[in-house]
Amino acid sequence: MEIVILPTAAEVGHIAAAKIAGLVTRKPDAVLGLATGSSPLAIYAELAILARSGEVDFSRARGFALDEYVGLPVEHPQSYASVIRTEVTQPLGMDAALVRVPDGLAPDLAAACEEYERAIASVGGIDLQILGIGANGHVGFNEPSSSFQSRTRIKTLAPQTRADNARFFGSPDEVPTHCVTQGLGTILDAGELVMVAQGANKADAVARAVEGPISSRCPGSILQWHRRATVIVDEAAAAGLELAAYYRYTYENKPDWQRWI
Ligand code: GLP
Hints:
This protein is 33% helix and 16% strand. By secondary structure, the protein is an alpha/beta fold. It has one domain (2-252): 3-Layer(aba) Sandwich (Rossmann fold), CATH 3.40.50. The radius of gyration is 17 Å and the shape is globular. It binds 2-amino-2-deoxy-6-O-phosphono-alpha-D-glucopyranose (GLP). 2-amino-2-deoxy-6-O-phosphono-alpha-D-glucopyranose (GLP) binds next to α5.
């Protein structure tokens, strides 16, 4: 696992975007795993600039969103289908037909989850999964106690997650109680994981994910188990890392051949 600590949240977005842009430049039809929430917004804003300037062409890139609320109409501004369309597909110039979001309205949710897994497999899997992390350590909507082998499925949102996400809704009661999320097993199957976190309220979750025991108590700790995982955080989110000085040292002394920016 590579841990990159940067001075500001803006630089987190910049460096993570550079990594993703590099992949799409090398492989124009790359399959991206798309996180929602506030953490990756700076990444998408940077990628949109690269798309507009013609530096990177996302028109052949494919995408699979990590998760979706159950029961929220697709046109609801906080449905992840809406968020992916307005923050990712449109600004990056992706082809909407190549971008999927789990269906939180399917009459048979279990069948829709299985179909989502088949759709990911049918394109050869996700090349790079973008991740944020919840204050309770969740990734996607895999709340504490999620199985490391879990696949896309229905989950009950933790009260803390509902409270955290209430800021996007009119009132806490409007936050759905259930969701559909790629499983931890699905996430572990991606070729590469890039997690971003900003701000002091993520410091504890980042420390537990990066340096704590690998445990479903903190689903983000699965990154330690992945072959190619990068964690990019700002100073505030890095505040709980015991080995911060070592991570800074390794990043500063990275050999040129190992650099991705
Ligand atoms: C959300 C999303 C996750 C996200 C996390 C953190 O509810 N389902 O994918 O990483 O919780 O959210 P934020 O980035 O807004 O802090």
